[in-house]
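INTERNAL AUDIT FORM
Audit reference: QA-55
Scope: verify that the stored structure record matches its stored sequence.
Auditor: D.O.
Record contents follow.
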Amino acid sequence: MPSLALYYPWTHVQHDDWLKLALLTWDNLARMRPPAAADRDSDLVRQLRAETDFLVETAPSPAVLESVAESFGEIFDADPESLLAKYGLNEPRARRLRNGELRQAGWRGYEPPITQHVAKWTPPGALLTAVPVDAPGAKMTSDLRDSLVNIGLAVPMDGPWVGLDPKLASIYLAVLADAMGHREALSPVTDDPRMHHATGALDRLVSMVFDDYVSVPAVENVESAYLQLALETVLEPSYVDRVPIGKLIGFREKHRAELAAFQAHVASLAPELRAVAEAENLEVAAAHLRAQYETKTRPQLEDLRKALRGIGVEATAGTLVQKIDLNAAAGTVLGGIAAAGGQLAVAGTAIAVTLAPYLAGKVKARREQVAKSPVAYLLAADRKLSGRTLLQRPR
């Protein structure tokens, strides 16, 4: 599975809890944030930018922009009258859009969130989605911008921005993310489920533009969804907001190898997950994912717990506790006491010294069990980040 994700369609991440889970899921999260955009990042995003390499600022290449512009140009040439009826920004329709009259019939919530508003927008453009053009980090070619304005599907805005009908902009940004994901080997992801799915958007462009309803899978990236479902199962997601970001950053750095092994485990389930990728009902897709987890991943996690218990390690939430087998260690302990001539003060030191090889062997055995398990990442998350751990710690 791709370990590098591409955030879309917005410039700024909308939900901190989603970002926390993303930090535990992917190696990096790229986003298209042009320098001209106002910095409306949350404190969490700013901390990640300052302390980690997780967030990567990127921009579509000229080749990506040209390919998307060409595809949209072909669509616009096919039936401009229908496009103007659906997405045109002539004055009567723009006024109805601004007044909210077009939200009712078929409105699916494509209005941009407040964090995406351009600072110099005038109130009449408040419901349009701005796309940067002719500037570093541009998301549209100037030729396509000119064509859209001439047709009546876009209006120029202050600075390097062009304004589009929110629904048309959602389609455009989804196709852009899909094209960029293919070329850069990135997995498009979003924290806004209202938006058009990016995965496969380029192939669905005609339907997305002209049809009122487009059949799409309920789960956009099934492998990423599976990984997050597994994490949520052990993390109890109602407690995710309580986990300090510093703790997540430290966990991520310490367990990179286990994450890579678990990503490989999820990738190995691709044949079983294909059916989930076709499901259009979210409840059905979620049920398929849970069933796969129960049959493919949970047993391996339980096997790892049993193996650790077998070598005298309790994999309880929050810690790994070494259990000393007194039968195995008795000779060493008694020998230590005898060597100390029965003096307990000296015997304590002797026991500590003579038990060291015994405990070192158990630590080595535990490390080997964890290293060969593809689900050790889930065990680590359960121990270090779960809600049970957070609740138990004050006691």
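Auditor finding: record pair retrieved intact. The longest strand covers residues 28-32.
Action required: none
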